[in-house]
Amino acid sequence: MSAIVMIWRHHQVLWATTLGDIRSRFIGTIFGAAWIVIYPLLFLGLYAVVYTMIYKVRVAQFGTFDYVLLIFCGLVPFLGFAEALGSGVGAVLGNKGLVRNTLFPIELIPVKTVLASSVTMLVGLLMLLGILWSRGIVHSTQWMIPLILMLQILFTVGLIWILSAINVFVPDLSQMVGVLILFLMLVSPIAYTHEMIPQELIPFMYPNPLYYLIMLYRDAAFIGEVKLELLGVFTMMSIGTLCLGGFIFSRLKPLFSDYV
Questions:
Q1: For the segment 165-181, what is each residue's pLDDT rounded down to a tens digit?
Q2: Residue 228: left if φ>0, alpha if ψ -120 to 50, beta else—which one?
Q3: Could you point out which of 67, 115, 132, 209 has its C-alpha 20 to 30 Å from the C-alpha of 6?
Q4: Under the phi-then-psi rule, with left for phi > 0, alpha for psi from -120 to 50, and beta for the rest, what region is 208?
Q5: How many structural domains are present in the chain?
Q6: Would the CA dihedral through 258, 177, 232, 6 be positive or negative?
Q7: Average pLDDT, the chain
Q8: DSSP labels for 100-156?
């Protein structure tokens, strides 16, 4: 819990460094901050073409455009998680100056990386809600999206604490992230519903945290019904991962300076 207390105590420093990370991402690019909008739209277009035109996937209760929105509900949080995972694993090794700076809390390095990586997802969620509302799809459960977003950030911070700490001693871990993201993209229910999963494969979905995350976003934003059992399981996963990540990171951080 000391790592969590550290975040709250230095939240102003965390906010300032996160804003700096966000600005630095778009320096030198042609489109600048517009990539925050372009990035999710490109992925959505790719998924929509593959699943609606090549695979010709059809869901009985949804038209083609509604099915695309269904994909968007799962794609936005996945992109946020994937971006945080891709940049967060090497966060400690990539900030050697801050690691050696005794005045800067090392715990904040992975946290600011996760927060900066969540900007694209936040913009994507706002775009999604805007499209849903324009089509008259308004549910009271949409008010639960901020709660689900907070749980996602807690889970991701805990996971990145663990992976970034291990990556200091096993640098090969950062090379495996691309394969892991591709694997998670294939096994996560981004473009298919729970009903489309074969019964014999459903038990393999339960250990995947992204299964709960995507289902919660989709149910809250599009379906209008949030299953409390899914919310309960993901809440426990998020809090447990955050506490475990804080514990592991705080135990390993005294050794970082010898390896960085």
A1: 999 999 888 888 988 88
A2: alpha
A3: 209
A4: beta
A5: 1
A6: positive
A7: 86
A8: H-TTS-TTHHHHHHHHHHTHHHHHHHHHHHHHHHHTT---GGGGGHHHHHHHHHHHH
For residue 229, give every residue at least 6 positions away whose Cβ sits within 8 Å of its Cβ, in sequence order, or none.
none
Q: Report which of 191, 186, 183, 181 is spatially closest to residue 74, judged by C-alpha positions.
A: 191
- CA 252, distance to chain mean position in Å, is 24
Q: Which residue has the higher pLDDT, 180 or 30?
A: 180
In tens, the pLDDT along 91-108 reads 888 887 777 766 678 888
User: How far apart, in whole angstroms, are the C-alpha atoms of residue 205 and residue 207?
Assistant: 6
Spatial separation of the C-alpha atoms in residues 10 and 235, rounded to whole Å: 25
- Predicted local confidence at residue 233, as pLDDT: 96
DSSP secondary structure code for residue 50 in this structure? I
Question: Encoding tokens for residue 23?
Answer: 């600005």
CB contact at 8 A, 120 and 40:
yes
pLDDT at 242 over 90: yes
Q: Do 108 and 7 touch, CB atoms closer than 8 A?
A: yes
Domain limits for position 156: 2-259
